[in-house]
Amino acid sequence: MKRKIGLDVGDVRIGVAVSDLMGICANPRETYTRKKEDPAADADYFAEYAKREDADAFVMGLPRNMDGSEGPRAELTREFGSLLEERSGLPVVYVDERLTTVSAERLLIEADVRREKRKKVVDKIAAAIILQSYLDGGGARRV
């Protein structure tokens, strides 16, 4: 089996998680700071990342409105996903990510992580939640 890479895409940062080889567990890896005004550079970074990790797909959180509709943020995420598919040659699977950042924040608060530290890790924890829901086969809906 190959690994899956989970991404929580934001305007400034992208949280990154990677599955184990068996596809059982999502592991938070890093918080990548996006290159301003250069999404191609971001996509190229993740194309190389996928090669290093021997990954065969990206699992990307798709931000939807609470009523399930897609807004401007979802459109930007899909645009980046299309660019990532083009640059990496790997498929991008979208997972409904409603409230994943909220869940990540709560998890960190319950673990008594200080506010300054939470800001540094919340994106990669959200990416792990997105990827884990995909690996579990339904915790979040694929869209």
TrEMBL record:
GO biological process terms, alphabetically, are: rRNA 5'-end processing
- Keywords attached to this entry: Cytoplasm, Hydrolase, Nuclease, Ribosome biogenesis
* Domain YqgF/RNase H-like residues, every copy: 2-104
Q: What class of enzyme is it?
A: hydrolase
Entries under SUPFAM superfamilies matching the protein:
Ribonuclease H-like
EC number(s) on file: 3.1.-.-
* UniProt KW Phosphoprotein keyword: no
Record's InterPro entries? RNaseH-like_sf, YqgF, YqgF/RNaseH-like_dom, YqgF/RNaseH-like_dom_sf
Annotated GO molecular function terms are: hydrolase activity, acting on ester bonds; nuclease activity
Query: Main subcellular localization, coarse class?
Result: cytoplasm
Query: Keyword Cytoplasm on this protein?
Result: yes
Q: Note the Gene3D superfamilies from the entry.
A: YqgF/RNase H-like domain
Cellular component per GO, a single term: cytosol
Q: What does this protein do?
A: Could be a nuclease involved in processing of the 5'-end of pre-16S rRNA.
Give the family, as the similarity comment puts it: Belongs to the YqgF HJR family.
Query: Which PANTHER family does this entry report, sorted A to Z?
Result: POLYNUCLEOTIDYL TRANSFERASE, RIBONUCLEASE H-LIKE SUPERFAMILY PROTEIN
- What is the name of the protein in this document? Putative pre-16S rRNA nuclease
What species does this protein belong to? Candidatus Limadaptatus stercoripullorum
